[in-house]
């Protein structure tokens, strides 16, 4: 065994003296190159393959995955399941959700979650710019539908929730934000609205709401003179809203990375 090691070592030294180098690939295979220039060339080829794969993955996220996520949120944000007959009902986004979406898009720019220069630029191909603009438009409508999924459909609570969102987003316009802090605040914002609507208010307006409906309903209905009326939806509506919000926040997490234009692959 020791003789074989000495023989192998001597052969390697002789190969090195003759200008040959041995390189080990990722699969554990030995590749013999004639000189150092060829070894550098092999390493450069590996780095080039890694860069190409990274560019393709980012192009897949920017041009395919993100638009699909935001379009799905746009479709599911207004979807409700009617309680009596379990039929699907689509609730269009009210005007206030478009205002909230505009404020949220401004926060995305201020918090550097969206770098406009990284999405639309003169050195990108026209097809790449159109794809990026389409993704941003889908993000706008997905934001509006995300608000729509956690807003009560009508009544005083609808305007209370709207004022809550409007006041929060307006105050945040004058605060210092980075992308990570903005994402955390949005998780808290949408999570609070989801719990209030689909857990607290859903049990309040349910036919078998129990003591919560009897107590809160009697007090609030007496004070508001019936302005807290809201339609009753099936429990599946809450699951749809939960999936919609998770999908929307996942898209925002993927959006936090700046896109790289792949002109040859767009």
The average pLDDT score comes to: 78
* Number of extended strands: 4
Q: What is the distance, rounded to the nearest whole angstrom, between the alpha carbons of the first and last residues?
A: 56 Å
Which class of secondary structure composition applies to the elements? mainly alpha
Arrangement of strands in the largest sheet: 1-2
The main pleated sheet reads as: 2 strands, antiparallel
Figure out the total of helices: 9
Fraction of helical residues? 55-70%
Which residue ranges are poorly predicted, with pLDDT under 50 across at least 5 consecutive positions? 1-33, 261-266
Q: What is the CA-atom radius of gyration, in angstroms?
A: 28 Å
Name the descriptors:
two-stranded antiparallel sheet, mainly alpha, disordered C terminus, 68% helix, two-stranded antiparallel ribbon, 266 residues, 9 helices, 5% strand, 4 strands, single chain, elongated, disordered N terminus
SSE arrangement:
Layout: H1 2-17, E1 21-24, E2 30-33, H2 36-76, E3 79-81, E4 88-90, H3 95-110, H4 116-119, H5 126-150, H6 156-172, H7 179-205, H8 211-224, H9 236-255
Helix pairs in contact: 2-5, 2-9, 3-5, 3-6, 5-7, 5-9, 7-9
